[in-house]
Specification:
Elements lengths: L4 E6 L1 H18 L6 E6 L3 H8 L7 E8 L12 E4 L9 E9 L3 H12 L4 E9 L12 E5 L5 E2 L15 E4 L1 H4 L2
Parallel strand pairs: 2-3, 2-5, 5-6, 6-7
Antiparallel strand pairs: 1-9, 3-4, 8-9
Length: 179
């Protein structure tokens, strides 16, 4: 798999450092609260586990699975809710944990869904933010890294369900997905 990577953007150590930084800030911001952490499957699962271990607050954890890529390298624009939450978010502080914010469509969908369910406060923590890819104006409250407008994989991010287990984030060689 490593041979399919054009270059590494963020090493294991870079990611550990960002996770620690974000965990400390989230601990401060959620002190005295009991947020529901919503991990967006599958990509954010590794990041979610690592970041909540750095949060010294009581919290609840839930998962949601949405899809807009459908195996490709670009968002289709259509958001499908594949698996819904188990927890009731009404009146709760919610932290959405994402692997990457690209077009913003999925995040907008999630924020609107949670608002319709009467969440008290909805914030977003993403390992990666790709502002150049934005098609929808959305706010990201906590960001590990800004990434260039390239196709990245690793540390939970995939191409056609592959590369999630790489311990770093790297740019996938275009010839891998252009064939």
């Amino acid at each position: 798999m490593n041979n399919d990577i054009e270059r590494v953007l963020y090493s294991e150590e870079d990611i550990r450092s960002a996770v620690s930084r974000l965990g400390e800030r989230l601990t401060k911001d959620y002190q005295g609260k009991r947020p529901i952490i919503i991990s967006v499957l599958k990509g954010a699962s590794l990041f979610t586990v690592d970041v909540i271990r750095k949060m010294d607050v009581y919290l609840d954890l839930d998962f949601i699975n949405i899809s807009s890529y459908h195996g490709g390298t670009q968002s289709s624009g259509k958001i499908d809710l594949l698996n819904d939450l188990k927890e009731d978010v009404s009146g709760r502080d919610v932290l959405i944990v994402e692997d990457i914010i690209d077009t913003g469509r999925s995040l907008k969908y999630l924020k609107e869904l949670l608002a319709s369910r009467n969440a008290r406060d909805v914030r977003v923590c993403s390992l990666l933010d790709k502002p150049e890819g934005r098609l929808v104006d959305v706010d990201v409250d906590y960001v590990g890294f800004n990434v260039p407008n390239e196709f990245v994989v690793g540390y939970g991010l995939d191409y056609d369900e592959t590369y999630r287990n790489l311990p770093y984030v790297g740019v996938l060689k275009p010839e891998i997905y252009q064939n």
